[in-house]
Write a structure and sequence with these properties.
Radius of gyration: 14 Å
Helix content: 40-55%
Strand content: 15-25%
Strand order of the largest sheet: 2-1-3-4
Structural class: alpha+beta
Shape: globular
Number of helices: 6
Number of strands: 4
Number of domains: 1
Distance between the termini: 5 Å
């Protein structure tokens, strides 16, 4: 079964109000910011250049969702409950955890995230 895509789910809400609060937290009090995946891939407002380059050059299909969007899109009484942030891997109709919140939160920086994604994709039997 071939890899269809990675789905990155941020521990943040999708509306503008939350976006502005998140940007302020990143600047004023980064240690209290709730989304390590956001902090690794975005500056206070814009996507980090190194991340953008990786996304474009990786050849991997990627989707990016906020937690409320994920819960709406994959809503089902049988659906797994995720702790955010999380990176999911979708193969056709199967959805599995690629990296869980604990693994993401332990990453120190963006290069470490990129290396971990590349390593896991290389070792992914799908």
């Amino acid at each position: 079964m071939a890899l269809n895509k990675l789905i990155f789910v941020y521990n943040a809400h999708s509306n503008t109000k939350h976006g502005l609060l998140d940007a302020a937290k990143k600047i004023l009090s980064p240690s209290t910011y709730d989304c390590k995946l956001c902090a690794l891939t975005y500056g206070p407002i814009l996507e980090r250049k190194k991340w953008k380059k990786f996304r474009k050059e990786s050849g991997i299909s990627m989707d990016f969702l906020h937690k409320d969007e994920c819960e709406k899109q994959f809503k089902s009484k049988f659906a797994q409950q995720y702790k955010y942030p999380v990176i999911l891997i979708q193969n056709h109709y199967e959805l599995d955890i690629f990296m869980n919140a604990k693994q993401i939160n332990s990453l120190e920086n963006l290069p470490t995230l990129i290396k971990e994604i590349e390593k896991r994709l290389k070792n992914n039997p799908n």
